[in-house]
Amino acid sequence: MNKKLFLLICMAACLQLGHAQNTMESIRQRYTEAKKYIESHQGTQDNDGSDWGEYYHMEARLFLPATGGHKEDVYMYWNEREEDVVYPSHYLTFATSKYNYAARNFYDEYLFDEDGKVAFVYVYDPLTSISDDEPDMEYEFRFYLNKGKLIKAIVKRRADDQQPFTEVYSGTSLKNRLSTVYDQYVTKAECIRKMFIAIEEEAYGN
Q1: Does this model's pTM top 0.70?
Q2: What is the mean pLDDT of the chain?
Q3: Mean pLDDT over residues 99-110, rounded?
Q4: How crowded is the C-beta side of 182, counted as CA atoms within 13 Å?
């Protein structure tokens, strides 16, 4: 291979890797800021004149045969767009979902960019496996995305809550069960985004 061509390919690969890393750092920073905001606004009184948090909270309850009662709480947080109007429109920045199934508690989080695309997904699954030859374990999934494209997946697991999580996968080549998990939660992020838009339209007629 021509040396100049080889160098160009290497430079392009390094630039692409650097871009992905920078994007991940940006995502992590925004995630940390969102979590700090939520924690600092918990327990504030509604409309008491102080700096209190605004969000939508949706609660769903149902009873299913054999597995009993189920409850899901979805919280949706937003920012205001910079518009010269009395009531500027909002865009979804962060969402959480906590739910129970068969006496186990599940939890996931979603970070969005200003274009409405999901940028980060965190999932805690207390009972699953990503291959047929292993028993069900507790899992943590982290998916980093840039403009809708996966740039990094990190998977951790443990046998029970008495043990630390151990990383079992890091990369972008998702296969079989892991690909299904990724698709499932990216789809859920889009469902939450559409629900947020529907609430906004009902509340503000935007």
Answers
A1: yes
A2: 85
A3: 92
A4: 22
